[in-house]
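During the no-cost extension, the postdoctoral fellow (Dr. R.K.) reprocessed legacy sequence entries with the updated structure-token encoder. One reprocessed record is reproduced below for audit purposes.
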Amino acid sequence: MASELTVQTLRGPTSGANANKVLIPSSQTLHAPGHVIQVQQYQAYPTNINIASDTLTATNMAVTITPKFATSKIVLHASWPYWFTSDSNNYCIGTIYKGSSNLGSGAYNCLSFCGPMRASTYNNQGHADYVDSPNTTSATTYTVYVRPYSANTSNLRVQWQHQISFISATEIAQ
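Re-encoded structure tokens follow.
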């Protein structure tokens, strides 16, 4: 296997099965600040969950990632469909938990305050984004939690078998 190493350039072989590739053996790790190290995701068309209380409730949108470096950042993106069985003037509050710790803040301990809806028969899409610094190389689970703003007027339905729900966790080297 031919290769060339200079102070400024790494080059893979120009022919063969790995032409123009620089390979890092599985026993080695490339650490390049600012680069994506890995992406983990949950993506599904699950059955909806009915929520009738004003308590943050776990969805089945969860992703587990094991950071390669304790200094990495984890970029989280989540999206979920929701609607109310009545009361089109209600809001969906969403957040992401790391294990049993809520990453949200403020008066509603949330990352997302979505709505109101035009009518109870329309679907909306909730979103939450967050950049975490887990400071660990242990497996870490992130889960989307939601609740209605006002539980006195309607049931919140989250997720839907005809619309995608997802959460992704992207490790970024620092």
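Residues 9 and 90 are 57 Å apart (CA to CA). The chain has a mean pLDDT of 87. The remaining legacy entries will be reprocessed before the final report is submitted.
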